[in-house]
Specification:
It is a multi-pass membrane protein. The longest helix has about 35 residues. This protein starts with a helix and ends in an 11-residue tail after the last helix. α10 runs antiparallel to α25, α23 packs antiparallel against α24 and α24 runs antiparallel to α25. About 55% of the residues are buried. The C terminus is likely disordered. By secondary structure, the chain is α+β, with helices and mostly antiparallel strands. It has 28 helices and 10 strands. Among the domains are: about 220 residues, Up-down Bundle (Multidrug efflux transporter AcrB transmembrane fold), CATH 1.20.1640; about 140 residues, no CATH class. The strands form 3 sheets. Strands 5, 6, 7, 8 and 9 form a 5-stranded antiparallel sheet that branches. It has a 3-stranded antiparallel sheet with strand order 2-1-3. The protein is elongated and about 100 Å long.
């Protein structure tokens, strides 16, 4: 591979005015096709054989169109209404304002006319009417039937403790997908409540209609700004700092266009372009940084810039190819989880990583040729003085490497202890899906959550829908079977109350709503869902009855369990594939093994730090603490594993190159560290800046994702790759580079260190100064 890339690098450098236009044409064509055939991004969280799917199937058979409102397929909104202090919603003026809100919502064009909005006061009256009970003004003490009828209403829309202070009404909108919601739609939905607010009612809107799509612009701007500063310091020159930005623009643009083309055939989640741009931007800059740094070094030892470009592409370019492959494997491997949105997000990220590699080895040599002698000008005074590519320069990296080489046990022990202490909180990790309680204080979504909790209890924010199939139950036993199920579910300590059963139009099924005592992300609610499902075997054996429990809370519990069960096989497959790949890169058994084991340390520390900061709110930035979003751990593993192997390749290939060229193990480690430390440091800082930019978002979920990714890169790059791995190499000595002879014969020699390139070069070269 090194020979092929060497020849390509020289060709691209020499034929720059052919290669650069070719890339521009490719980018324009991809962008044009993408714009012409693209379809909207949509979030469909599907996975095979989830327990909640059983309830959805029952609803679809016996309650047509009902499941969409409970499994997130329909665009919904919940208006939570509070009466003024000291007043009741049933007071004439407040009741009139509430009725006006219902009428205005019914008149909105975006409301689904097949599911009209119902006045909660009138709905509550209808509940008691058949039994002759006044559920609004009746006295529970004087009428024993009051509690049985009114508290078990099919839909509790007036607050339970004080049935006249808080109400809620659910609206289903005639909008096909979340990506189709416009700013005008959100404004219309919210403006409908303005007259009610003017009349003194508190009206807060939550649900999908109130959610805003995430925007990564601030993170990208921060990442690019920091990248320019870091690369200017790394290269000691201004012009060279802009070249990786150019490759990043092309790589991200091409990858985004391919993803847009993919939307015409697949349902891509809305977060896919955010993840793709984040990965593409960071990787394109990192890979270009690595190749340009090597090019700068080769200019000092080769007889022409063209030769230097060929050598840099053949050596650093080979490392980039295999570093990129580890990222692609890690991201594409998310498909084994079996969750559709993770699969497509992983594929989108893998496409971005692929183009980051392609522009680094395909476009960058041509750009180096185009800028010519101006690439490393003007030089920055002071910074360029200490060049890590100069073997005679004593940099900070060299000093650190000498400390590691002298006291490897000490540096290894300290790093492991630090990582272990950081990992301790990970044992208390709690997964969940962000709800209204994680929204920024003062927003409509957060106020709706708090008001609904006040009126109906915390569990009302995560109700459970129980769908019961009675088709196999004898007609004379159906009422008894349904009553026994309700009694069993109501008997659990975690259940607050159950509504009355609603029969299906065909009489073959029923459904009712359960309200937990605890919130959607509490362990007590998770236990309630599991215990409720555990009753089915006995009831099926006794009556032939089947049922399922669904709703956003139940679906979240299922996703949490699914994702947790997939972490181990995902790690095994991805780490195993990367391990085999790195054996070919390093021609060693122990180096890839230590790289993979070191990743486990950095992941444990990252999970621990994320739990401490966002679940336990140790720094006071998480508004009291929230569960870790359920898909974050497995997404974090995929992203950081690929990046960790990048840093392993960037740093350790230089160490192996020194060893292959005759250095003893510890001097080889020190010289390789000297050459690679600044590049890995710069690459890590750029990554941390891009990911850390997401902490600027007011949303706790975005903050936690940005923090976790930035922390993962920090721990892995600066503690594992730059301390733990060099310490182990120093301790293992020559054994680190040992490979069995039988394995050496079957593993392809990809020659990342460029040993074969020396055979292609002519003797009598003369070094040329940089710039």
């Amino acid at each position: 591979m090194s020979v092929f890339l060497y020849l390509w690098g020289k060709f691209a450098f020499r034929r720059k005015w052919f290669v650069i236009p070719a890339w521009i044409v490719l980018l324009v064509v991809l962008a044009g096709v993408g714009a012409a055939v693209s379809k909207p991004f949509q979030d469909k969280f599907t996975a095979p054989d989830l327990p909640s799917q059983r309830a959805t199937e029952i609803l679809d058979r016996h309650f047509p169109g009902m499941s969409a409102a409970f499994n997130g397929a329909a665009i919904t909104g919940t208006y939570v209404i509070g009466a003024p202090a000291g007043q009741k919603l049933t007071d004439p003026a407040n009741a009139a304002a509430l009725e006006g809100l219902v009428q205005r919502l019914g008149a909105l064009p975006i409301i689904d006319k097949n599911h009209p909005v119902i006045d909660p006061i009138q709905q509550t009256k209808q509940v008691g009417a058949p039994a002759g009970i006044d559920c609004l003004n009746g006295n529970p003490a004087s009428n024993p039937q009051f509690a049985a009828v009114c508290s078990a209403a099919p839909l509790n829309v007036l607050s339970k403790d004080d049935p006249k202070s808080v109400a809620k009404l659910d609206a289903i909108f005639a909008i096909k997908a979340f990506s189709d919601i416009t700013a005008d739609d959100r404004k219309a939905a919210d403006d409908a409540a303005e007259p009610a607010r003017a009349a003194g009612l508190e009206v807060d809107l939550t649900g999908m209609i109130a959610q805003q799509a995430q925007n990564s612009n601030s993170a990208e701007i921060v990442g690019v700004a920091v990248a320019l500063v870091v690369m200017a310091i790394a290269f000691g020159a201004i012009v060279a700092a802009f070249v990786p930005i150019l490759t990043a623009i092309v790589g991200v643009g091409a990858a985004a266009s391919v993803v847009l083309i993919g939307t015409s055939h697949f349902t891509m989640p809305t977060f896919t372009p955010v993840l793709g741009s984040m990965i593409g931007l960071a990787l394109s800059i990192d890979y270009a940084l690595f190749v340009v740094s090597r090019y700068k070094h080769e200019l000092t030892v080769q007889d022409s810039p063209e030769e230097a470009a060929g050598i840099a592409t053949g050596t650093a370019g080979s490392a980039v190819v295999f570093a990129g492959l580890t990222v692609i494997i890690a991201l594409a491997g998310l498909s084994i989880v079996g969750v559709s949105f993770l699969t497509y997000m992983g594929v989108g990220g893998a496409i971005a990583a692929l183009f980051a590699v392609l522009v680094a080895i395909g476009l960058l040599p041509a750009l180096m040729g185009a800028f010519g002698r101006f690439l490393f000008r003007p030089k920055l005074p002071g910074i360029a003085k200490y060049d890590p590519e100069d073997d005679n320069s004593v940099t900070l990296g060299m000093r650190i490497a000498r400390v590691i080489g002298k006291w490897p046990w000490l540096t290894l022990g300290l790093s492991v202890v630090i990582l272990a202490l950081l990992a301790l909180p990970a044992t208390q990790m709690q997964l969940g899906v962000p709800g209204g309680d994680s929204a920024q204080p003062g927003t409509s979504v957060r106020k709706a959550y708090d008001l609904q909790t006040k009126g109906f209890g915390e569990g009302a924010n995560g109700t459970l829908l129980v769908a019961v199939d009675l088709s196999k139950v004898p007609q004379n036993q159906r009422a008894q079977a349904l009553d026994e199920l309700r009694t069993k579910l109501a008997g659990y300590s975690g259940m607050d109350y159950l509504t009355a059963a609603v029969p299906s139009p065909d009489g073959q099924a029923a459904m009712f709503t359960g309200v937990p005592k605890s919130g959607p992300n509490n362990q007590e609610t998770t236990d309630l869902v599991r215990n409720g499902r555990a009753e089915e075997n006995d009831l099926r054996a006794k009556y032939g009855m089947e049922y399922g429990i669904t709703g956003q809370t139940a679906i979240s519990v299922d996703f949490d369990q699914l994702l947790l069960s997939k972490i181990a096989p995902y790690l095994a497959i991805v780490a195993g594939a990367a391990f085999l790949l790195l054996i070919a890169v390093f021609r060693s058994i122990l180096v890839p093994l230590t790289g993979a084991l070191g990743f486990l340390l950095s992941m444990a520390a990252t999970f621990g730090a994320t739990v401490a900061v966002f679940q336990q709110d140790k720094l006071g930035i998480a508004d009291g603490g929230h569960p870790i979003i359920s898909f974050l751990p497995i997404m974090l593993i995929g992203l950081v594993f690929g990046l960790a192997m990048d840093y392993q390749v960037f740093l350790v290939t230089r160490m192996r190159e020194e060893y292959v060229h005759g250095q003893e193990p510890i001097p080889a480690m020190e010289r390789g560290y000297h050459h690679g430390a600044r590049v890995v440091t710069a690459a890590a800082i750029i990554m941390i800046s891009v990911f850390g930019g997401f902490m600027l978002s007011p949303d706790v979920t975005s903050k936690s994702m940005g923090f976790a990714l930035a922390a993962g890169v920090f721990f892995d790059a600066f503690l594992v790759r730059m301390v733990v791995v060099p310490s182990l190499l120093a301790l293992m000595g020559r054994a680190a580079w040992w490979i069995p002879k039988w394995l050496s014969r079957i593993v392809p020699d990809i020659d990342v260190e460029g040993a074969r390139l020396r055979e292609l070069q002519q003797p009598g070269r003369h070094a040329q100064p940089v710039g």
